[in-house]
Specification:
The protein has nine helices and no strands. It is mainly alpha-helical.
């Protein structure tokens, strides 16, 4: 029963990445190499963030929400944006369109995040004798992160690769990208600052990620249209 629970949680956590790759044209254009290289960029970015957090953050003995520390975490979190910029603009990609490129980058980024932050807790905790909803919620959180990563990659593609985008949409694109990039700090504030339960935070993440995915898709579609 414990292994069955582990496999269920693992499929919920990592399965959507495989489904997205196989159900979209990404598999037809053989973009797996792009996703793998992006995952390596994510790991390097995570290492840089870890060094910055260990260097500049104070060690807290309690779970009290500290606005100054969270602001510093948010600023350090923008290293992710720099990593995505490198993955979108500096990595060598095969002859794939901008549409497929941002999807491959976002997918690789989200998968690496799930492996780094969720695989070990799943292996250690989901095989326990006592059933808990935490790892199911963790899987749902991974799904939300997948949508947010794809949204941020799409917005980054519009900011850095799309030259002839409508000027009226530029502030909206940057505002949405800034909001998605600060989502970890927002969820930390909801959890530790306002005392939300994990299920409430994950519900907020799912709703927000779906909303941002729709907004990003609309912005990307609008920028694809030829200017009059």
């Amino acid at each position: 029963m414990t292994m069955f629970h582990f496999f269920n949680c693992a499929i919920l956590t990592f399965g959507p990445h495989a489904v997205y790759y196989s159900a979209t044209p990404l598999s037809e254009y053989d973009t797996l190499g792009t996703s793998v290289k992006t995952a390596v960029v994510y790991l390097v970015t995570a290492l840089v963030k870890l060094v910055c957090l260990a260097t500049f953050l104070k060690v807290s003995e309690s779970d009290v929400f500290d606005p100054s520390q969270e602001l510093l975490k948010a600023l350090i979190g923008f290293i992710d944006v720099a990593g995505l910029y490198f993955a979108l603009t500096q990595l060598t990609h095969r002859n794939i369109s901008q549409n497929h490129k941002f999807q491959a980058v976002g997918l690789g980024w989200a998968f690496a995040d799930s492996v780094l932050h969720r695989l070990a807790p799943l292996w250690v905790g989901a095989r326990g004798l006592e059933f808990t909803w935490d790892y199911i919620l963790q899987g749902l959180e991974a799904n939300a992160n997948l949508m947010l990563s794809l949204s941020l990659a799409a917005l980054g593609s519009l900011m850095w690769l799309r030259k002839n985008k409508p000027k009226t949409l530029i502030p909206i694109i940057y505002a949405c990208a800034g909001f998605v990039a600060t989502m970890p700090s927002i969820t930390n504030y909801l959890r530790w600052g306002l005392g939300w339960h994990l299920a409430e935070v994950v519900g907020f993440q799912l709703f927000t990620s779906l909303t941002m995915a729709l907004v990003s898709w609309q912005l990307f579609s609008a920028c694809q249209k030829p200017s009059a």
